[in-house]
Structures are given as structure tokens and as C-alpha cells.
């Protein structure tokens, strides 16, 4: 493998990449007494795909990862790697790479010795081990660091050593359990791209666990959002962000405004009559019935402030708070007693400086509204 001096691995590296496996989880379940930690988790992961298990603490994402690794025994279900069921096989017989959050490097071993450890356990020859270690050190851009000890490395360098150790024996599947959690924000963002580039170059099937939404959106081919041991929704980052299937997904994957009410028809178009009494135009094609109770989500960046022209829905409110967050500002607007909507504006030259307490218009299109809950019971 050949790696460029900085940035992503070269095309030659990608062409010489590893063979990722198809990984299938079928009704994978883990219970502890009456507690269901993972509930019939089912996923079909393509060879070379990068999929992230995303969810809050207790959602079942780490339990699912540990079952794939073999450190947790499933109560029931299957784990197929290229059709071979490994669900009840010992961890060391699965040939799966694993990167932990705390790196799990041996402090008394050099970088090269740490990376070589899984190869020695597999009884590779000395020459073959040396070639493999040199190759993977180039891949993670740590050539020349082989004789150093973990304590002599930065956090990002230690993480790359842990990644190199997981890749060196060319596993068909790589598992990563919140590997960037201990890094500061800037280094974390750099490592997100570096890991993704290495994964693309090696073409290894990767299952990544995180509770960080931005990290999942940045790195993943697909994301599986988990809640209470179950998968709530699976899709590409764009699909999940722009078309969440539930209020939980919409709220967990970024910021959202939520409104509830009943469906009505005005001038042939479906509208939401909210509990506060104002009307929100709904997207066409949703096959809604008048009187049906629904909930909708609206992303803050979809709301225009002060420019109602041409928008399907326009509301007036009082600006309650302006929150400056650097590249953008969040505007919290009271549109009814006890009801607030948050809009997000990019900060740039010419951007108006809003004042707390002033009257403003909020406007958006029906295509920006996402239906996230439905109740077929009609209410008159």
C-alpha cells in the first residue's frame, strides 16, 4: 500500500485494499433478566460499507457491537459474516478487528510491538510481520514511530496505532466503539475524516458506535438510529436528517421544532391546525385525512425570518432570545402563549442584528415540513 504524505490514502492504496465482508444481523437479541438490551436487531451491511449505530446511552448500540465482537453472548439471533454464522463463536475465532474508546494499547510495548501483537498470536513469520507492520504504519501515517512507546504519543497518534493494530491482520469486518470520545473537538474532527479515508482506502466493512450526531453524519454511508434496544430508522445521513421517520429521530439527529394538531383542508390543500390555533401548510402526497391527529417537525435552518414572500406558511411572533453560536445565530420566537419556534440564520456580512422583544415574521415552505407521528383516530 502507498500513502500520500498528508490527507487521504492514494488511489493505489484503494486498489490494493482489503476485501470487506457482508455482515448480517438477524433478530439479534440480548436480555438480562427482564431487561431487554437489544431487541431483534436486524441489519444487512454491504461489503465495504461504513455504518454507524447511533443513539443515546442505554439504546443498545454498544451491546449490539459487543455481540458482533463476541464479548457479549446473544440470547438469540444470528450474526452472519459472508453467510457464516458466528453468533456463538469465541471472539478470537471471529477474525474481526476492534478499536476501543480507551485505545487499549500495551504501555510496555513499542508501537511496532503493539501492532504486531495480533500477528504473533496468529503465528505469522517474523519477516511477514515486519512487512505488515511497516505497511500499516504507512497507511495510518506513522512511519518512523515504530520504536516509540504509547506514552510518547499524542491522543490522535495513539488512536491511529489502535486502528493500525485492528487493521494489520486484514480482517473482513472492523468494529469501532466510540473511538474518538477522549479527543478534543479539533482533533476529533480531523480524525473523523482520517478514519473515513482509511476505511474507504481499505474497503473494510465497518460498524461504528457513537452518540455524537455530527460524527455520524460526517463519517457514515448509512446510520442506524437506536432507541430502547431497537432500531428506530436506518438510512443515509441525508435521508435521516431531511426525512426522519419519528419525532425521536428528528430530535436526536439535529435540532427540530415540533408542532401537533389535527388535519384540515383549506382550498384543496392539507393544513395542520395546531393546538395553539394557527395553520401550517402540509406537504402534498401525504394522504392525510381531515380530522387526523399528527405531529410534524421543522428544522430551524428551514425557517426564514422577516422575509415571508412566496412562503406557504407565515407566522408572526415576538423575538424572545438571540443565541450567538459563531457561524450562525439561533432566534427563539414566541408565536403563541407557551409556544416557541427556533430559527437559525448564518452570520455573514449584511446580516440583520435582531433585537429582543421586536415583532418578526417566520416563514417556510410546506416541503420543509416532515410528518413524524400520525394517529388515525379522527377528532372533530
TrEMBL record:
It comes from the Bacteria. It catalyses: ATP + H2O + polyamine-[polyamine-binding protein]Side 1 = ADP + phosphate + polyamineSide 2 + [polyamine-binding protein]Side 1. GO terms for biological process: quaternary ammonium group transport. InterPro entries: AAA+_ATPase (IPR003593), ABC_SmlMolc_Importer (IPR050093), ABC_transporter-like_ATP-bd (IPR003439), ABC_transporter-like_CS (IPR017871), Mo/tungstate-bd_C_term_dom (IPR008995), NA-bd_OB-fold (IPR012340), P-loop_NTPase (IPR027417), PotA-like (IPR005893). GO terms for cellular component: ATP-binding cassette (ABC) transporter complex. Coiled coil: none annotated. The keyword Signal does not apply. Residues 23-253 form the ABC transporter domain. Keywords: ATP-binding, Cell membrane, Membrane, Nucleotide-binding, Translocase, Transport. Part of the ABC transporter complex PotABCD involved in spermidine/putrescine import. Responsible for energy coupling to the transport system. This is Spermidine/putrescine import ATP-binding protein PotA. It comes from Sphaerobacter thermophilus (strain ATCC 49802 / DSM 20745 / KCCM 41009 / NCIMB 13125 / S 6022).
Amino acid at each position: 500500500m502507498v500513502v500520500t504524505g498528508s490527507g487521504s490514502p492514494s488511489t493505489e492504496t484503494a486498489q490494493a485494499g482489503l476485501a470487506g465482508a457482508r455482515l448480517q444481523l438477524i433478530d439479534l437479541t440480548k436480555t438480562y433478566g427482564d431487561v431487554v438490551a437489544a431487541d431483534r436487531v436486524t441489519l444487512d451491511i454491504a461489503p465495504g460499507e461504513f455504518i454507524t449505530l447511533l443513539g443515546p446511552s442505554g439504546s443498545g448500540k454498544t451491546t449490539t457491537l459487543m455481540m458482533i465482537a463476541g464479548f457479549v453472548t446473544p440470547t438469540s439471533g444470528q450474526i452472519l459474516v459472508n453467510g457464516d454464522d458466528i453468533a456463538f463463536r469465541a471472539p478470537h475465532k471471529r477474525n474481526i478487528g476492534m478499536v476501543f474508546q480507551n485505545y487499549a494499547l500495551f504501555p510496555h510495548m513499542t508501537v511496532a510491538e503493539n501492532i504486531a501483537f495480533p500477528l504473533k498470536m496468529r503465528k505469522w513469520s517474523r519477516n511477514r510481520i515486519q512487512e505488515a507492520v511497516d505497511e500499516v504504519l504507512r497507511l495510518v501515517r506513522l512511519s518512523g514511530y515504530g520504536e516509540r512507546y504509547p506514552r510518547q504519543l499524542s491522543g490522535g497518534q495513539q488512536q491511529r496505532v489502535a486502528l493500525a493494530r485492528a487493521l494489520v491482520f486484514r480482517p473482513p469486518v472492523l468494529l469501532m466503539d466510540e473511538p474518538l470520545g477522549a479527543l478534543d473537538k479539533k482533533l476529533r474532527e480531523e480524525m473523523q475524516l482520517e478514519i473515513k479515508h482509511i476505511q474507504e482506502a481499505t474497503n473494510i466493512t465497518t460498524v461504528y458506535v457513537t452518540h455524537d450526531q455530527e460524527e455520524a453524519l460526517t463519517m457514515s454511508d448509512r446510520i442506524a438510529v437506536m432507541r430502547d434496544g431497537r432500531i428506530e430508522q436506518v438510512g443515509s445521513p441525508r435521508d435521516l436528517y431531511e426525512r426522519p421517520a419519528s419525532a425521536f429521530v428528528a430530535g436526536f439527529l439535529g435540532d427540530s421544532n415540533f408542532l401537533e394538531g389535527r388535519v384540515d383542508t383549506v382550498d384543496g390543500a392539507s393544513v395542520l391546525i395546531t393546538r395553539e390555533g394557527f395553520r401550517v401548510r402540509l406537504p402534498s402526497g401525504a394522504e392525510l385525512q381531515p380530522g387526523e391527529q399528527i405531529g410534524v417537525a421543522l428544522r430551524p435552518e428551514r425557517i426564514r425570518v422577516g422575509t415571508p414572500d412566496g412562503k406557504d406558511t407565515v407566522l408572526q411572533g415576538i423575538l424572545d432570545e438571540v443565541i450567538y453560536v459563531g457561524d450562525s445565530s439561533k432566534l427563539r420566537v414566541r408565536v403563541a402563549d407557551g409556544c416557541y419556534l427556533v430559527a437559525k440564520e448564518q452570520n455573514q456580512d449584511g446580516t440583520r442584528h435582531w433585537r429582543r422583544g421586536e415583532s418578526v415574521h417566520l416563514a417556510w415552505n410546506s416541503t420543509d415540513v416532515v410528518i413524524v407521528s400520525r394517529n388515525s383516530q379522527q377528532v372533530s
